[in-house]
């Protein structure tokens, strides 16, 4: 029931030595990399290339993800710096300003899934990062509710590509076994943003030499930083292993060959295959992940938009409430390192670890709702954010369990449709009349987390059932029998079309 274990180098070498060098896959490698070596890369070469990929790609993605989450938190932080009063937001208007971001995210998720496949992935992501940085800067000029609504919508459009794009790049460069800890590595940016985003906002909030309100400065500074960073991404974030500037031609070959074992299609990255779109929509795992993601993000929508206000309601001043967000980020970081590390070294543990994180958040959310003491409620709020560390595990399930580049991009987009759905629904339960306790919002968050656990259990049982069905149907308990499959079968077919494909649990 584990991941594929066959040697991709030996498969490619066998096919070539048997006169199959004219296969589709080999031709694609020839065209993009030149003559492919028939000698399997050594273990030392594999480790050297992996180390170079880690040093070059993970910091690029991690810092960008940190900027994204800091930009996303900026609206909540700006409320403590006077935004609501200055632009005269009333009643549920702030909730809608929070939710409309995810309408933009939702509107662009599916177009983005096509564009990521159709255009160079790294360049497309870099362009969108630049655009959202500019849009965030425009927040600093906002004067009313309508203007803020429009800007939040287009900010969602700009950010929609990032996590799916990074997940696809991770799937192109890393084997299935390597992916969870790498997904977690760039997602560390999320925890760092939680830890230091409040500190940055606190520092900006104490600026007294500017004629601009500090909430406007917050948007201008964060937006400018993001736009400048997009230029670095444009030059250094690769579109695929074949275009990685930091790898020599020989190392590019090794990078391609080492990921053929994934059976998820690394070389068909520039084709949008319509049949794979329908395969994605008819796959039960798509909807298991969809329902889980939508449910837990009911809680996320409330915490992201109202977390700073909830903390201020514990009895802290507005500026001090910005600093108190730091323990939430530290808690996320601990759980992220723990669960991503365990998922990489303990086979068939990803969904179980996701259940553990979600249950931890459920307990924390109940503490925030039911407890009275400031310290207990703050501890509960720190635990309540732990479920967010499931995002890299969810993305690693897609990278590892979905074959076909088009299908994987479609399911990634569908997952983020669910992410948006939950985040749109969540803030609507945080009623202005209940500020700062938000009892209805907390009950909705608890319910969403509980449903998320139910859907994870259902997904786990589906994977187990499907793996056993394949073992019985094909008379094999081996997770991979790819020695009998041409390399083009690996690249051009989905997980449901490959008899040797087994799902990671």
Question: What is the structure about, briefly put?
Answer:
By secondary structure, the protein is mainly α. Helix content is 72%, strand content 0%.
Give an account of the 3D structure.
This protein has 505 residues and is mainly α. It has one domain (23-35, 43-492): MFS general substrate transporter like domains (Growth Hormone, Chain: A, Up-down Bundle). The chain has 21 helices and no strands. The chain has helices at 8-17, 24-33, 43-80, 83-86, 93-118, 121-139, 145-159, 162-173, 179-205, 214-236, 249-258, 274-281, 284-312, 318-323, 326-345, 350-370, 374-384, 390-401, 405-428, 439-473, 487-492. α13 (284-312) packs parallel to α19 (405-428). The longest helix is centred in the N-terminal third of the chain and has 38 residues, at 43-80. InterPro entries: MFS (IPR011701), MFS_dom (IPR020846), MFS_trans_sf (IPR036259).
Give the key terms.
505 residues, mainly alpha, Growth Hormone, Chain: A
SSE layout:
Elements: H1 8-17, H2 24-33, H3 43-80, H4 83-86, H5 93-118, H6 121-139, H7 145-159, H8 162-173, H9 179-205, H10 214-236, H11 249-258, H12 274-281, H13 284-312, H14 318-323, H15 326-345, H16 350-370, H17 374-384, H18 390-401, H19 405-428, H20 439-473, H21 487-492
């Amino acid at each position: 029931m584990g991941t594929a274990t066959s040697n991709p180098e030996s498969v490619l070498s066998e096919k070539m030595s048997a006169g199959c060098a004219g296969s589709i896959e080999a031709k694609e490698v020839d065209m993009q990399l030149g003559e492919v070596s028939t000698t399997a890369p050594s273990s030392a070469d594999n480790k050297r290339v992996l180390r170079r990929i880690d040093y070059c790609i993970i910091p690029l993605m991690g810092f960008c993800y940190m900027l994204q989450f800091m930009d996303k938190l900026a609206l909540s932080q700006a409320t403590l710096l006077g935004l609501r009063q200055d632009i005269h937001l009333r009643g549920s208007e702030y909730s809608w300003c929070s939710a409309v971001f995810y309408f933009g995210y939702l509107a662009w998720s599916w177009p983005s899934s096509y564009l990521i496949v159709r255009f160079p992935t790294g360049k497309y992501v870099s362009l969108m990062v630049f655009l959202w940085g500019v849009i965030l800067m425009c927040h600093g000029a906002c004067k009313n509710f309508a203007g803020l609504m429009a800007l939040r919508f287009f900010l969602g459009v700009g950010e929609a590509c990032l996590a799916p794009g990074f997940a696809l790049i991770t799937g192109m460069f890393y084997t299935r076994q390597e992916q969870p800890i790498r997904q977690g590595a760039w997602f560390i940016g999320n925890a760092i943003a939680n830890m230091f985003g409040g500190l940055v906002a606190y520092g900006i909030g104490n600026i007294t030499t500017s004629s601009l309100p500090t909430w406007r400065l917050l948007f201008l500074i964060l937006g400018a930083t993001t736009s400048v960073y997009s230029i670095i991404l444009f030059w250094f974030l690769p579109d695929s292993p074949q275009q990685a500037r930091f790898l020599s031609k020989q190392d590019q070959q090794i990078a391609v060959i080492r990921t053929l074992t994934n059976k998820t299609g690394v070389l068909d990255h520039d084709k949008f295959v319509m049949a794979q779109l329908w395969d994605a929509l008819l796959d039960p795992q798509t909807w298991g992940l969809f329902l889980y993601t939508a449910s837990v993000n009911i809680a996320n929508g409330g915490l992201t938009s109202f977390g700073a206000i909830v903390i201020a309601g514990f009895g802290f001043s507005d500026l001090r409430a910005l600093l108190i967000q730091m323990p939430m980020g530290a808690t996320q970081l601990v759980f992220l390192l723990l669960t991503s590390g365990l998922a990489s070294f303990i086979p068939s543990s990803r969904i179980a670890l996701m259940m553990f994180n979600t249950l931890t958040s459920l307990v924390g959310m109940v503490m925030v709702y039911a407890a009275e003491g400031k310290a207990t409620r703050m501890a509960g709020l720190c635990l309540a954010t732990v479920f967010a560390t499931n995002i890299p595990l969810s993305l690693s399930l897609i990278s590892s369990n979905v074959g076909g580049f088009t299908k994987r991009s479609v399911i990634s987009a569908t997952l983020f449709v669910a992410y948006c759905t939950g985040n749109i629904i969540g803030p609507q339960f945080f009623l202005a009349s209940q500020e700062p306790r938000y009892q209805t919002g907390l009950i909705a968050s608890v319910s969403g987390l509980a449903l998320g656990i139910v859907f994870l259990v259902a997904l786990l049982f589906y994977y187990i059932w499907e793996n056993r069905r394949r073992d019985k149907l094909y008379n094999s308990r081996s997770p991979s029998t790819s020695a009998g499959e041409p390399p083009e079968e690996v690249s051009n077919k989905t997980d449901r079309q490959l008899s040797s494909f087994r799902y990671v649990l």
